[in-house]
Amino acid sequence: MSKPLKILFLISEMHPYAKIGGLGDVAASLPKALLKMGHDVRVVIPRYSSIDPDHYNTTTCLQSMGVWMGDKEEWCSVHSTKSADQVPVYMIEHGLFFHREGLYHDNGMNDYDDNPRRFAFFSRAALQLAKDISFKPDIVHANDWQSALSCAYLKVWHWNDPILGDAASLLTLHNVAYQGIYPKDHYNYIGLGWQNFTQDKLESYGKVNFLKGGIHYADLVNAVSPSFAQEITAPGGGFGLAPYLSDKKESFVGILNGIDYETWNPQTDPHLPAHFSMEKLTGKQKCKQELQRAFDLKVDKKVALIGTVGRFVDQKGFHLIAQAIERILGQMHVQFVILGSGEGDLQDYFGNLPARYPRKAGSYIGYDNRRAHLIEAGCDFFLMPSLFEPCGLNQMYSMHYGTLPIVRATGGLNDTVENYNEKEGTGTGFKFSDTSPDALYYTVGWAVSTYYDRPKHIRSMVRTAMKRDFSWQSSALQYEAAYKRAIENKKAFDTKSKYYW
Ligand code: ADP
Questions:
Q1: Residue 221 forms beta bridges with which residues?
Q2: How far is the CA of 337 from the centre of ligand 1 (A)?
Q3: How far is the CA of 390 from the centre of ligand 1 (A)?
Q4: CA torsion sign, 10 to 12 to 15 to 16?
Q5: Ligand 1: which of 26, 257, 309 to mutate, judged by most atoms within 8 Å of the beta carbon?
């Protein structure tokens, strides 16, 4: 192995401490894979009030840490613990910022007004922590807009710092639809200098744009799948960021996420009533029955059972499902289960669906990890019609659990699912391209007719899907290579320009 790296990993969610979506899964599994490779990786997250420090055996690492922001000093404390996988985790405790009902928004899905301050502070505090515990990182790995500004602070504030001065930065874009765009009234607090409030750096139509700033200052940027990396640099792509990403040239790459085979393993999953493997699938039938009971569906091992899990936001295409599902339920011999939460009209719609299709449709509105695992395991098909998808983990979980994904061919969904070839009987799922309820309806019909008419093909596809390697191993190696490139880029930058102030 090459020289171990010291990696400071900043992220706003981490399973099992705080998770809304796939970001939390990546925070748990990528550092774990890097640690296994011998790197010294430390994860920093906010201490949200939903995280009970006692439950996770945290100790107080810093009783009182002063963090200079642009126009004031904040005070916080820091807890530390080790994850079940022995990854050191630091939690920034700031009651005013992080003790509230949600991570980013209230129960009504309204973003907190002070999010720019909360996450600018978080980014600064994580760097201050490195200084206060004398952890000299080779690389600061920022994730999404919530920690993107750490890349800017490194170049603007810490260019001459004995602990942070040599640290290179990598910014991972898990989702470019969320950029952290806020009124410039917050800019003095953020404190990155008005000379940097320019269109090429942090300014966007008179507002401050965290992600854009991070992209500018990071030594390397990556998206979480090769296809998505291409899509967001295409003209008009990237939700306005395409030109800035294209400007990064070879310093912008795509690295596909992996999945954690210890947490998501049908042979050991503690959330399942029975276990199964590619060789012995009988346990999957038991999971199907349990799922049917849990969602009050008719227990029937022969019926095609379609499920989905996710955040009810535009990106995930749940409105396409809402527009097609009644035709599907009305005309096809299927059952349907859905687990999710988010936009109110979708919650109402899917919450009421079982009453109109009793014993055929089941829903659970809310967040429930056990049910998520049960759906992956017990269904025959997993529906994921995302309008865009940076990577997507659920389709990989479903394939690993022998549940064939029905997906829109976009981003990471396109990279990971091999479309069914009816002639050869090959593939790992069913894909469609149009963002229309019709396309979804016909592709579900295609999958369902294959299920009943060509069961041999389905059995062979299930085996192929379960055999696919989505482990973190190869992705973590690519991250290691990306860190090295970021370090080279930083060295080259330092010899040329040194600092940005
Ligand atoms: P995204 O990160 O865009 O939300 P992914 O497919 O990458 O989408 O990851 C979603 C993750 O969040 C999966 O682990 C999924 O099981 C989990 N998840 C999403 N919604 C829920 C929910 N309502 N209950 C339990 N788990 C959920």
A1: 171, 252
A2: 15
A3: 13
A4: positive
A5: 309
Domain count, the chain: 2
176 pocket-lining for ligand 1 (C-beta < 6 Å): no
| Ligand 1 lined by 369 (C-beta under 6 Å) | yes
Instruction: Provide the residue range defining the domain that includes 79.
Output: 6-258+473-496
- CA–CA distance, 391 with 397 (Å, rounded to integer): 12
* CATH code of the domain in which 35 resides: 3.40.50.2000
Q: Which residues pair with residue 111 across a beta bridge? A: 105
Does ligand 1 come within 6 angstroms of the Cβ of 337? no
The full length of the chain comes to 501
What tens digit of pLDDT does each residue of 2-54 get? 789 999 999 999 999 999 999 999 999 999 999 999 999 999 999 999 999 99
For ligand 1, is residue 21 a contact (CB within 6 Å)? yes
Distance 435 CA to ligand 1 centre (A): 21
- Residue 429 β-bridge partners: 419
DSSP-derived pairing of the beta strands 220-223 and 168-173: parallel
If asked whether residues 25 and 121 sit together in one domain, one would say yes
Place of tokens 């607090």: 189
- The 10s digit of each residue's pLDDT in 150-182 is 999 999 999 889 999 999 999 999 999 999 999
- State the CB neighbour count (10 A cutoff) for residue 73: 8
